[in-house]
Amino acid sequence: MMGDKEIIGGKGLTSDTGTHVPLICNWPKAVPQETVIDDLVDASDFLPTMLDISNIEHNDITDGRSFYSQISGKKGNPREWIYFYFDPNSPRLKRPVSEFVRERKWKLYSDDRMFNVLDDPDEKNIISCNENEETKEVYKKLKKILADIKN
Q1: Structure confidence by residue, pLDDT tens digits, 27-45
Q2: What are the sequence ranges of the domains in the chain?
């Protein structure tokens, strides 16, 4: 239990319980205390962040984005989306390769399953891409990102 909410473990799953983890930055006098940021951060963002902190030029050498500005209390350049590829390369895991792109609210798998991960972090209710104008627009945008990544 976390407060009044039951958190079900999900290590090895592609749901938020397996891929969405807190990032805690402790740097007295550099990171303002009590700072809470809900930006998306990808593993590829750590190297450019460390290079920024070290004042080392890094343009065009990494795929990631520095989040140094955000943890310093500035706006920065947060991600709009992250891409995830999961290959459960284990004989005991009988799961297929999964890939998805997600924003803060929406997540689209390459097999067209779409979820509102803010309201449904356990991904129990697939959202139709034709449910309303918002879902149509989100689906179109996320589908294009998946297509661009493959090309």
Answers
A1: 888 888 888 888 999 999 9
A2: 22-79, 80-150
Q: Which residue has the tokens 């390459």?
A: 110
Domain 80-150 has CATH 3.40.1000: no
Cβ contacts of residue 75 below 8 Å, gap of 6+? 69
- Predicted confidence (pLDDT) per residue in 85-96, tens digit: 887 676 666 667
Report DSSP state, residue 86: E
Q: What is the pTM of this model?
A: 0.81
Report CA-CA distances (Å) from 46 to 36, 67, 80.
18, 8, 17
**Distance of alpha carbon 47 from alpha carbon 102, whole angstroms:** 21
Question: CB of 17 within 8 A of CB of 9?
Answer: yes
